[in-house]
Write a structure and sequence with these properties.
This protein has 89 residues and is of the alpha+beta class. It has helices spanning 6-12, 19-27, 74-78, and strands at 3-5, 31-33, 36-38, 44-46, 50-54, 59-64, 81-83. The strands form two sheets. It has a five-stranded antiparallel sheet. Helix 1 (6-12) packs across helix 2.
């Protein structure tokens, strides 16, 4: 698999609790792929894409490293992305 729906990837990466929440997050325009705002939950993402996700009071910046066939535990979720956040000092 070289591409996956953005809502499904966000759910597998455990950014949100449900796939419906992931679809709503994308539809609300709170997800950018490589700097471009996306509003279609079915938009395909690929390895190497950089996501900017605006959550309640946080912004997450992550690079897609891979995909999962099913939603696993937190360790499996961390394996499919690289966190690009700069630690605050």
């Amino acid at each position: 698999m070289d591409r996956q729906r953005i809502d499904k990837w966000l759910w597998h990466a455990r950014v949100v609790r449900t796939r419906a929440d992931a679809a709503a997050l994308v539809a609300a325009g709170r997800v950018r792929v490589n700097g471009m705002r996306q509003t279609a939950p079915g938009h395909a993402v690929k390895a190497g894409d950089v996501l900017t996700v605006t959550l309640d009071r946080r912004i997450r910046l992550m690079e897609i490293k891979g995909f999962a066939d099913r939603r696993g535990d937190a360790d499996a979720a961390r394996a499919i992305y690289a966190d690009l956040q700069v630690p605050e000092s």
